[in-house]
Design brief:
heterotrimer; A mainly alpha (about 90); B mainly alpha (about 180); C little secondary structure (about 70); B: about 180 residues; mainly alpha; Ferritin; 8 helices; elongated; C: about 70 residues; little secondary structure; two-stranded antiparallel ribbon; about 10% helix
Chain lengths: ~90, ~180, ~70
């Protein structure tokens, strides 16, 4: 399996979509099953993968969230493509 | 409150504009069983929900529905972008076009604007959860109908994803109702 | 004249309300609706889960109408 550093932009975005979706589905499950140990382990695993992937994406291609924005000498946040343009789809 | 991510929950990449389909899909943006309706329903109900876990679930699912609203808008936008007034008129899109051009505005496929009469926030825990389960079934049927009417695989792909999410949400609201009953 | 009709198994509770003990040990009571609990057992791999729309195989209920098929 590729590491996040080996992925190109489209591959990394697809990876982020996958691990983030796993987080969403398990979050809603945990909302009604708060003590399910398997589910808690699954959450821990995927939230970690998501954090690294979001950081890697922000470093190489620009931030997807305000928390991963790290502008140096130019405000890039509002200049990023919007996802319905086809840029991030 | 909300932060957001600059990506769609599931990708939307439509290469063939088609205003006829857009008119149908738009119903899941501003229609009675669409994603805005779902989102406003759950996000409104959470304030009076006496069980914190259920209010939390309403917030999580209500937020996901905002992401779905965005996907539907992206689908409609990509289906109508770049079409001329003549092409839109030929597709039966003229009544929408005259008021909104190719902008995105929440209405049902039949033209009724989105309005709060399309959902209820009754302030009663059991009632609100049954309202939510019904809403998820209504949304699922609407997606079934879209899949019967629309054959373009680029459109059907995100639509099938959205339909599956309704089934999962129905299950979660059903479980929340059990949690509620057992207290 | 009003009579208290008693079904078999009905008991007179100390509070005076007539309890039907057919339901006393049961989780399910009339005038309510219930969805069965779903549990985390197996899950789809993340790429398949995203494509389908859930990580849970038991919640995977695709549209099987005419002309619809999964890619």
């Amino acid at each position: 399996m590729m590491t996040v550093n080996q992925m190109n932009q489209a591959q990394l975005l697809h990876w982020i979509d996958m691990v983030s979706f796993a987080v969403v589905d398990i979050t809603e499950y945990l909302d009604t099953h708060p003590q399910d140990e398997e589910a808690l382990k699954y959450f821990d695993h995927y939230i970690d993968l998501r954090r690294s992937a979001m950081r890697a994406y922000a470093d190489k291609y620009g931030p997807l969230t305000i928390d991963t924005a790290n502008p140096e000498n130019y405000w890039t946040w509002s200049a990023q493509p919007l996802p319905w343009e086809g840029g991030n789809c | 409150m909300w932060n957001y991510e600059r990506r769609l929950q599931y990708p939307v990449n439509i290469t063939r504009p088609n205003a006829k389909i857009a008119k149908i899909i738009m119903t899941q943006y501003g229609g009675p069983d669409g994603e805005i309706s779902a989102s406003m329903r759950y996000l409104s109900q959470r304030y009076s929900m006496p069980y914190r876990k259920v209010a939390g679930l309403l917030t999580d699912i209500g937020t996901e529905e905002l992401a779905h609203m965005e996907m539907i808008a992206a689908i409609v936008r990509q289906l109508t972008k770049g079409l001329s007034a003549d092409e839109l008129e030929a597709a039966g899109f003229a009544p929408y076009y005259v008021d909104h051009t190719a902008g995105i505005w929440p209405q049902a496929a039949g033209g009724i604007p989105f309005n709060a009469c399309e959902f209820q926030s009754k302030g009663d825990a059991i009632t609100d959860l049954f309202e939510d389960m019904a809403a998820e079934q209504k949304a699922r049927v609407t997606y079934d109908n879209i899949l019967r009417l629309v054959k373009d695989p680029e459109v059907c792909d995100p639509i099938r994803f959205l339909r599956q999410r309704e089934i999962v949400h129905f299950q979660r609201f059903g479980e929340a109702d059990r949690e509620d009953c057992s207290k | 004249m009003m009579r208290n009709y008693r079904m078999p198994g009905m008991v007179e509770k100390p509070c005076g309300c007539s309890g039907d003990n057919r339901y006393m040990d049961r989780e399910f009571v009339p005038a309510m609706a219930y969805v069965p609990w779903q549990y985390f057992t197996t899950v789809y791999e993340p790429d398949k889960a995203l494509e389908i729309g859930t990580i849970f195989p038991e919640l995977d209920k695709p549209f099987l109408g005419r002309g619809a098929g999964r890619r």
